[in-house]
């Protein structure tokens, strides 16, 4: 079993079958450097006071949670009132519906978690559910109450285990129409489309996350290491070369750019286009 502690323990249920499972976060909390604001002369961290406009600092006991139902008007709620409507962490995650694996828009997916059997007794039933999902090409849907909130979740096979992903509810997502409405509805030029498709085919490969590195985070860690080595002294960093503003003289023809990319940077061959003769 992994060294980290499960964030949830309970039963994964399919109809009358219940399986003891544990849930683990699939992402690392400390994978990226985090910063605090520091008072430079003293080297001590900065803290913030709770203040009210026209009043100044206020006591912690005077603070309540407020929901802004209209501009500058709030309905106030006590912690006790909020706790009263929190959902108790249910010990059962029931798969109530199944959908095809490609039916859920990626826009809905939020955070990934690993779902594993709790003990040896649960393994056989767990494997049956996992392999049944894999064979059918389906994803199981259910709702999980966790830490006072209720999450819509999707469960699917992942290697020897199951991957549970929280999903956004419908009312949490913005509609795409306001953002896409100004994009012309015309089809791409056939010749350009052919070359672009060929370029995509050329660069198509199996997904391997190890190929992609977070260059910013790597550079940030290297900067921190250099700063530690220099004992806090100011160090210089190299600036990226500035790109010249594009003008009429250096506008690159789209077809030429696609052809050059397709041929691996070589000078593109002359583009031949055919047009229908006017009748």
TrEMBL record:
Q: Which UniProt keywords apply?
A: DNA damage, DNA recombination, DNA repair, DNA-binding
InterPro entries in alphabetical order? DNA_bd_Ku70/Ku80, Prok_Ku, SPOC-like_C_dom_sf
Record carries keyword Thylakoid: no
Ku domain: from which residue to which, for each copy? 55-183
Give the matching SMART domains. Answer: Ku78
Q: Which Pfam families match?
A: Ku
UniProt-recorded Gene Ontology molecular function terms: double-stranded DNA binding
CDD domains named in the record: KU_like (cd00789)
What are the Basic and acidic residues biased-composition ranges?
236-247
Q: Where is this region: Disordered?
A: 231-250
Keyword RNA-binding on entry: no
An annotated GO BP: DNA recombination
Query: Which proteins does it associate with, and in what oligomeric form?
Result: Homodimer. Interacts with LigD.
Q: Which family does it belong to?
A: Belongs to the prokaryotic Ku family.
- Its job: With LigD forms a non-homologous end joining (NHEJ) DNA repair enzyme, which repairs dsDNA breaks with reduced fidelity. Binds linear dsDNA with 5'- and 3'- overhangs but not closed circular dsDNA nor ssDNA. Recruits and stimulates the ligase activity of LigD.
The protein's name: Non-homologous end joining protein Ku
């Amino acid at each position: 079993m992994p060294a980290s502690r499960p964030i949830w323990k309970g039963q994964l249920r399919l109809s009358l079958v219940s399986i003891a499972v544990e849930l683990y976060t699939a992402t690392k909390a400390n994978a990226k450097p985090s910063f605090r604001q520091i008072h430079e002369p003293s080297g001590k961290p900065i803290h913030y006071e709770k203040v009210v406009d026209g009043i100044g600092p206020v006591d912690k006991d005077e603070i309540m949670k407020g929901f802004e139902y209209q501009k500058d008007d709030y309905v106030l709620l006590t912690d006790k009132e909020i706790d009263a409507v929190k959902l108790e962490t249910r010990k059962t995650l029931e798969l109530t519906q199944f959908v095809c694996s490609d039916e859920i828009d990626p826009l809905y997916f939020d955070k990934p978690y690993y779902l594993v059997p709790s003990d040896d007794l649960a393994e056989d039933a767990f494997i049956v559910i996992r392999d049944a999902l894999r064979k059918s090409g389906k994803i199981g849907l259910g709702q999980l109450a966790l830490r006072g909130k209720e999450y819509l979740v999707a469960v699917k096979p992942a290697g020897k285990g199951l991957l549970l992903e929280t999903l956004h509810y419908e009312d949490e997502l913005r509609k795409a129409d306001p953002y896409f409405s100004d994009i012309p509805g015309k089809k791409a030029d056939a010749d350009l489309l052919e070359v672009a498709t060929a370029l995509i085919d050329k660069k198509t490969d199996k997904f391997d996350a190890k190929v992609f590195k977070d260059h910013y985070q790597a550079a940030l860690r290297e900067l921190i290491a250099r700063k530690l080595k220099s004992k806090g002294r100011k160090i210089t960093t190299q600036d990226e070369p500035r790109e010249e503003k594009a003008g009429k003289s250096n506008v690159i023809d789209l077809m030429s750019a696609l052809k050059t990319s397709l041929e691996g940077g070589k000078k593109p061959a002359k583009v031949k286009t055919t047009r229908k003769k006017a009748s």
